[in-house]
Write a structure and sequence with these properties.
11 helices; 269 residues; L-fuculose-1-phosphate Aldolase; alpha+beta; 9 strands; binds zinc ion; binds Dihydroxyacetone
Length: 269
Amino acid sequence: MKDIINAPFVREMCEATANMYRLGWDERNGGNISYLLEEKEVSEYLDLKRVLRKIPTSFSAEKLIGRIFIVTGTGKYFKNVEKDPETNLGIVRIGTDGTTAELLWGFKDGGKFTSEFPTHMMSHISRLEVDKKHRIVMHTHPTYTIAMNTVCPLDEKDFTHKLWQSNTEAVIVFPDGVGILPCMICGTNEIGIATAEKIKKFRLVVWTNHGIYGTGATMDEAFGLIETVEKTAQIYMLTLGKAINIIPDDIIKGLAKLWNLTPLEGVLK
Ligand code: 2HA
Ligand code: ZN
């Protein structure tokens, strides 16, 4: 067996959490990531027959039975993942009942997966339905995105338009726009169900007064989506009320056309 500490998927989790912490997005225990793994890639590092613990999930994820995820731990700090991956991360497989997570590695101090596990699993189910290559669900608290969400109407087309108008990269990176959920109680199955519904249409979903979800086939894709929203929200907030050179709709349309992209309907005039 190879040493799991050097596994590419463990390294990617360490790098992503460290970058997100240093960007100021994940204070204290803020943020969580889950990454769908192939049985074959995990079996190079772990005996898949050896279950360390069984952890109830409190919801049913039948469509994910047998699927394996590496996921950040509840109450754990992104700041600390890199120096102690085995305590701050865990690898779990959804058991045959669909309601139990079988711990295969990690959560060494007796911990368990993120409080947002329902949202993560339900979102994986949704994204896999629209994208077979989907693997990552990433949640974080980027400052300017939350600030912009606080001063803008909770209208996803209007919010998307404001982002596209502030940075020419925005429409190219997320032509499908940004979904928005109203302020809800986090950590519940209810917010999981609402997010999973939204995320079928949007790879990015803002949780009002809280943060954002990004998804993708790779860590870079999910991270890049959130990074571009956050950079654009920063521009928007730094220029709030003073912008005189917003990007005209015909330029946004031209960018989309140049890159062969279909912008979210109903946003551009
Ligand atoms: O895990 O970000 O939404 C801490 C959070 C909860
Ligand atoms: Zn959060």
